[in-house]
Design brief:
six-stranded mixed β-sheet, 25% helix, globular, two-stranded antiparallel sheet, alpha+beta, Nuclear Transport Factor 2, Chain: A
């Protein structure tokens, strides 16, 4: 297992345990994260606010690593997010309460380059088990 795959594994484990401090430590302070429905978030504080929102809405939220391909300073990750939404999910567009369904599949790409000060993480939902309903 490579360094980036180990880092992604530590991040997934920390998020699943609800240890957002340890999850945050896996990111460069200048990280750029792109997430479906949210768009681009710049900086670790923006990612942290997003993660806290999801953990409040789905306290049992967990990330599961399905596969990863690492090449040099880049890694492509396929994983799943699963959680039961028991509270409202605040999004930039509206306050929503998704149905209590689990396991949309997401694909994430994380790159860390010695020549780039801002690592970038992109998440793309590739399959969703349900649609969020307005609440």
């Amino acid at each position: 297992m490579g360094d980036l795959q180990d880092l992604v594994g530590r991040f997934y484990d920390a998020f699943t345990r609800g240890d957002l401090d340890a999850a945050e430590a896996c990111f460069d302070p200048n990280v750029t994260v792109v997430s479906p429905g949210v768009g681009e978030m710049r900086g670790v504080a923006a990612w942290r606010a997003h993660a806290e929102t999801f953990k409040r809405a789905a306290p049992d939220a967990e990330l599961r690593l399905r596969s990863a391909v690492e090449a040099g300073d880049r890694i492509a990750v396929e994983g799943t997010f699963a959680g039961t939404f028991t509270g409202p999910l605040q999004t930039p567009r509206a306050r929503r309460r998704p149905p209590a369904r689990r396991s949309p599949s997401t694909t994430s790409t994380c790159s860390r380059s010695p020549t780039t000060a801002s690592p970038r993480t992109t998440s793309t939902t590739t399959r969703s088990s349900s649609s969020a309903s307005s609440g």
